[in-house]
Amino acid sequence: MIASAIEGIDCRVTAVDSAEEGIRVVGEQPVDVVITDQYLDGMTGLSFLKLLRDQEYPSKRILLSGHIDKETAIAAVNDAAVFRIIEKPFDRFAIRSAVILALDALGRSPS
Length: 111
Description:
Elements: H1 2-5, H2 19-28, E1 33-37, E2 39-40, E3 43-44, H3 45-54, E4 60-65, H4 70-80, E5 82-87, H5 92-105
Parallel strand pairs: 1-4, 4-5
Antiparallel strand pairs: 2-3
């Protein structure tokens, strides 16, 4: 669903099955935008994104959640530097818009 939402945007999509694999991938190659669900096996999406921020990966971070409370939303912005929070179920336009804005904020043309 995410890959089809950003079809036509000049970017590469790498899907992973766990936060641990995501950390490995981000450590091996530059990643402009990281999109993760809040609920992951073994770690929350917020913890994963905070870890990326703490390790100073220069990516923009997008958090997906079917239910996010006020405290989690505040922590996402303040502690993990989350660029966007998108509520589930989401539509393709929400993902596409967030990725375009993230790339633009990084100075990358999303054409």
